[in-house]
Amino acid sequence: MDKKEIEVLQILEKDAKTTTEMIAKMVDLTIDETSSIVKRLEENKVILGHSTLIDWSKVSGNDGVTAMIDVKVTPIRGVGFDKVAERIYRFPEVKAVYLMSGAYDLSVSIEGKTMAEIGRFISEKLSTLDSVVSTTTHFILKKYKHDGVVFDEGEDDRRIVVTP
Description:
Number of strands: 6
CATH superfamily of the largest domain: Lrp/AsnC effector binding domain/regulation of amino acid metabolism (RAM) domain
Strand content: 15-25%
CATH architecture of the largest domain: 2-Layer Sandwich
CATH class of the largest domain: Alpha Beta
Radius of gyration: 21 Å
CATH topology of the largest domain: Alpha-Beta Plaits
Shape: flat
Number of domains: 2
Oligomer: single chain
């Protein structure tokens, strides 16, 4: 991968809405060259998608629950953790799965409408998988920062300054 391709990736990672024209100017390429780079990166599965980060807490009626689940598993001979992770990420509730170092093997991020819904997922789907030994669930109470974006930067402090 050359320097220009990496520059294009960095720009798109920061803001996927950046136009091809703007990227071309930023990396000193023609629009056609830039389009070709983006297309090639998409075909080679380097660029996997374009997403929008939404603060759902500001949208009434869209309250949901996000949980991070630490999962201890028994790896499968010959394929390690990959097959177990694949089985887990195929559930529609699952938003992300990561292989981790430390006390647990996998970290699973899921979203649901209620804590009870997440509880049912864990007890009926996740915990029943043959390779799953144990789980620990952490519910996200508030997002402060995600993918480099700060949520609710807060208002200015409106308290009156008191000095002696």
